[in-house]
Amino acid sequence: MSNRRFYMYEYRQIIALLKAGESNRNIGKTGLADRNKVSLIRTIAIEQGWLSETAELPDDATLATVFDQTKRGVKQSSIAQAYHVQIEKWYQQGVQVSTIHAALQREYQFTGSYDCIRRLIKKLALKEVKVSCMLDFKPGECGQVDFGFGPKLIDRETGEEKKTWIFVMTLAWSRHQYAEVVYHQDVLTWQGCHRRAFEFFGGVPEKILIDNAKCAITKACYHDPVVQRAYYEFAQGYGFIISACPPRDPQKKGRVESGVKYVKNNFVPLRDFKDLADANAQLKCWILETAGNRIHGSTREKPLTLFSETERILLKRLPDVPPECVAWAKVKVHADCHIQYLKCRYSAPYQHVHQTLWLRASETSVRLYHEHHMIAMHVRLFKPGTRTTLTEHLPSNIAAYLMSDPQWCLEQSQQIGSQCHQVVKLLLENSVVDYLRGAQGIVGLSKKYGVHRLNAACGRALAFNSIDYQTIKDILKKGLEYELLPTAQSFDVLNETYTGKSHFFRNITTTMQ
Questions:
Q1: What is the second-level CATH architecture of the domain 142-314?
Q2: CA 257, 263, 264 angle in degrees (round to 5)?
Q3: Among the four residues 290, 490, 499, 507, which has the most C-beta atoms within 10 Å?
């Protein structure tokens, strides 16, 4: 009993009995304290003069002062007390106890233990009292938004089990909420959830209170948070104010924090979900039937009733044309005239190679901007590794090469003449060397020399079995396309002196055979 905690009224009762002349033994029998404790109290009461007939019983403050000092005795001052100011300064800066202890040993040759530092800091922590206040909101004034972990679901496209998140928007006044299970927390998903929440409520709150999620805030700051460009434009389109919580202070949106816990603890357990669509269908029914019709712990009213009767009509009207859900990103144009966004590639004008552009991605399109001017637009791609290229974005030589494929060369050569068509066909059928550029060059000679001269030059090249681009060009340049062909006996000598490409002659001869 001597080790138990004594309250001041118990001390007062014992002193009153002592003053009335009761013995230590009799007081011990009452169960207030054992005889040793009563003896100690008698000694202190005599020293304080409380047992005299004229003395009044001491009040609680006096008893606490006397008995606390007696109980504590004289304690030795902590060795860490000499460094109290420095320790408190480091503690306020968030420095760890072990780091403070090491710094004191290093800088001040401190010989005390780690525990004496920890005890001093514990006393400092007890002095810090954190006070919070309840935030009040008017109907339609505020909606609070947050994400929480959702159930794992099977993705029907891949057949894999994927983790999910639950998006929750809670109206701060009525506590009516919208919730949705999603696979991602990116900017487009964030905006899409907002849009569906506004459509679910039939209106827009004056402001949306959010945490510092990357899909909304690019730089968290107490005074000047930096909002995502896309989310900023989205808020402008719907006409709501973005209100970001201070860093590391989620209590400012405690109502949606509670809402997320309520969904996770009440809706998710003991349910089976076929897929994402089934999970959201069940969640919507649960919101309207269970969550909306419960008696809320704070308002003592049904959230759906408060919303339907009061808050719905005070929300802002939805815009006639809802703003597009988009994402902005800075991208670099690579040497191949393409940028990469979410593992898909989109072409950009070659003049901007190695430059940084702004990319605006919506659910259907991707647009590229340079100094506020749109320079390219593509259909949105979703499959990783896919690519879209616009020919006008490439340099003329590369564009011409890509457009002039083998089929194009064959079609053009056929229009020029049978001799040209035969030359191009032989070049493209070579099984060892790619002569596409040679075929393109031969077809291109028609622009300078005309189709008739080119077709004749190809005929002469075929006669000599030397059908490379340079030979045909030399024939046209020297005007030899209509010259009489030599006799068969002199073909070997003329071929060597005429073209100087006997190796090519052998290759073509092999191909023709």
A1: 2-Layer Sandwich (3.30)
A2: 90
A3: 499
As a whole number of angstroms, the distance between CA 441 and CA 286 comes to 70
Beta strands of 308-426 (E only): which ranges?
A: 326-332, 338-341, 344-347, 356-362, 365-370, 373-379, 387-388
- The whole-angstrom separation of Cα 424 and Cα 414 is 9
CA 44, CA 66: separation in Å to the nearest integer? 8
pTM of the model: 0.62
* Residue 357 structure tokens: 């552009």
Q: DSSP label at 401?
A: H
Q: In which residue are the tokens 């409520």 written?
A: 201
Contact criterion met (CB below 8 Å) for 2 and 36? yes
Domain boundaries, the chain: 8-72, 79-127, 142-314, 326-394, 404-512
Q: Quote the Cα angle for 129-134-139, to 5°.
A: 165
Greatest CA separation for the chain = 156
Angle at which helix 406-416 crosses helix 418-428, to 10 degrees, equals: 160
pLDDT tens per residue, the chain (513 residues)? 446 677 888 888 888 888 888 898 888 888 888 888 889 889 988 888 888 888 888 888 888 888 876 554 444 557 888 888 888 888 888 888 888 888 898 888 888 888 888 888 887 775 656 666 667 899 999 999 999 999 999 988 788 899 999 999 999 999 999 999 999 999 999 999 999 999 999 999 999 999 888 888 888 787 788 898 999 999 999 999 999 888 766 666 678 888 899 999 999 999 999 999 999 999 999 999 999 999 999 899 999 999 999 999 999 999 999 999 999 999 999 999 999 999 999 999 999 999 999 999 998 999 999 988 999 999 999 999 999 999 889 887 676 666 667 888 888 899 999 999 999 999 989 888 888 889 888 998 999 999 999 999 999 999 988 899 999 999 999 999 998 887 654 455 445 544 444 444 434 433 333
Cα(93)–Cα(341) distance, rounded to whole angstroms? 41
CA–CA separation, 163 and 153 (whole Å): 7
Per-residue 3-state assignment (H helix, E strand, C coil) for 47-61: HHCCCCCCCCCCCHH
Distance (Å) of CA 489 to CA 475, 494, 499, 503, 505: 21, 10, 17, 20, 17
Q: How far apart are CA 502 and CA 496, in angstroms?
A: 6
